[in-house]
Amino acid sequence: MRIAAFLISLCMGHMAVAQDAESLLGPLRTRMAGLNDLTCNVQMAFDIPGVQMKQLGGKLYFKRPDRFKVAAKGLVFVPKQNPFGMFDLLARKGTYMAMVAGAEAVNGTPCNIINIMPTNQEDVVMVRLFIGKADGRIHRSDVTLRREGTVVYRNTYANATDLLPSVIDFEADFKKFRMPKAITGDFNSKPVAAADGQKYETGRIRMTLSAMEMNKRLDDSLFKDSSEL
């Protein structure tokens, strides 16, 4: 009887935690539902070990569920680095398990931490969201990928009511991370050198967004790789 009571208590506790997680994700999911596509200007600054690359300016395009492209000088096509991937994941209820995992401040903003374990994705092992307690927005997301390790996104918002950030800082271990197949410039000419005994090569890309236009009904052909044309 004691064992049965313990198991029931454990299950009830897990259900309560899951319910608390959904109560935090629900309002965020509702706000995200209003964004179908996005076009904006983007300035990118690079800090990647072993890579000499100047800032790039161009256009960023996003279309739900998972279309993402940055068009700059040369072509930068980065589907694996989609900073809006959370939109599609959270929209598909029943395809993940979520659990409250404490609280932590991100750049001075108190946040609840939600651990999300997708149940139907091969690449994504876990997503750790830092959701603002006061504004309900994503201030940081840690995405653990099966092959590339953990990718960290830090969001900075220009205004208190903005759904989308004006600055996205992208951080990854570039010794593990697979670079996009359609990318040119010094990324190819000066690859990251593998040093003996060096386990991590953390690199960062800062994307500054401006002149945002939402829900313009972008055509799918815009996102085709040049090899598909």
What does this protein structure show overall?
- The protein is an alpha+beta fold and 229 residues long.
- 18% of the residues lie in helices and 39% in strands.
- It has a single domain (2-215), classed as outer membrane lipoprotein receptor (LolB), chain A.
- A 10-stranded antiparallel β-sheet has the order 3-2-1-10-9-8-7-6-5-4, covered by helices on one side.
- A hairpin with a 5-residue loop joins strand 6 (124-132) and strand 7 (138-145).
- Mean pLDDT is 78; it is low at 3-18 and 180-199.
Q: Helicity range of the residues?
A: 10-25%
- Look at the structure and give the mean pLDDT: 78
Which percent band covers the strand fraction?
A: 35-45%
Number of strands: 10
Helix and strand run = HEEEHEEEEEEHE
| Annotated CATH architecture | Clam
Task: Record the strand order, biggest sheet.
Answer: 3-2-1-10-9-8-7-6-5-4
Q: Give the count of structural domains.
A: 1
Estimated radius of gyration: 19 Å
Structural class: alpha+beta
Distance between the termini: 66 Å
Largest sheet, in brief, is: 10 strands, antiparallel
Please give the CATH class.
Mainly Beta
> So what's the overall shape?
globular
* Number of separate helices: 3
Low confidence ranges: 3-18, 180-199
CATH topology, which one?
Answer: outer membrane lipoprotein receptor (LolB), chain A
Q: What's the SSE blueprint?
A:
Elements (H helix, E strand, L loop, with lengths): L1 H31 L4 E11 L8 E8 L3 E5 L13 H7 L4 E11 L2 E10 L5 E9 L5 E8 L3 E8 L10 E7 L12 H4 L12 E13 L15
